[in-house]
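Lecture 7 notes: from sequence to structure.
We start with the chain below.
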Amino acid sequence: MKTTLFSATALVGAMGASTAMADCGEVSITQMDWASAQVVTAVASFLMEQGYGCDVTQVPSSTVPALTSLAETGEPDILTEVWANSTPAYEGLLEEGKLVELADVLSDGGVEGWWIPAYLAESNPELTTWEGIMANPAAVGGRFHDCPSGWACDIINNNNLIALGAEAGGLERFQHGSGETLQTSIAAAYDEQAPWFGYYWAPTAVLGKYPMVQVEVGDYDAEAHTCNGSADCADPSFSAYPAAKVTTAASGAFLEREPEVADMLRNLSFTNAQMGEVLAWRLDNNASNEEAAVYFLTNYQDVWASWLSEEAAANLSAILQ
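Predicted structure tokens for the same chain:
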């Protein structure tokens, strides 16, 4: 692992010395504030820069602000890892033609849900249901660990908790300031074998490293889920999360300007197993997003080689040997 990390670091450091080898111009791409999306962005950026000669700018963002920005300004050009089922504005932008869906970037789809640690489920099996938690909220620490403001799950979880009467039942919603602090809260709970209950998703290194059990809350209701995705939902009703469609999308202007790069992005896709393995390596090695991208590109050449044009593949093979 240390050798791979050293090689990745050296390659990342050398990237700035490369010269453009195609007529690709400036490209902006989201850098969402959770780990798997950051790896997708790092891989896509590397391929665009080193394979197609693009001048890539990564724009720190999250789902709702990125969609709002694209709708109003046409930028950023590319949105990586959009959890489409949890983002009501997404379908409207597709219908308006402001956004074009390119690929299911997580080919297996994503999993969203409410979880407790496996050790808590083993010692208190009743906590694997919502009814069991509300019968004794202190057993899960009296709080629900929620995702940061600006994430689509922020609004959905809040409306679901309102519909379930969580606060009145003694369960406080604790909203984390970032994906990193949400992740850290699970690691800290495991270190202390402490109570924990909250929202998380897969594929992630966290759920691979720290076994979690999904709490049985209720069924998926399409109408309720749609309403819960809006901050203006007047009468929230509970709905579980559906199996998540996770995509890469881009502005129509980008497709017209950079059709060859768009073709590459249409092919860029990870299985949950592949992404989980890369994320676990990144976590265990305290690696950067760029180093994780190089780790993927070094170890999964049989996967990404088919994504590229012949010229781009030749450019990358000269670098990644």
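Points to note: The radius of gyration is 21 Å. The beta strands are 26-32, 55-61, 78-83, 99-104, 111-117, 143-146, 172-175, 198-202, 212-214, 246-251.
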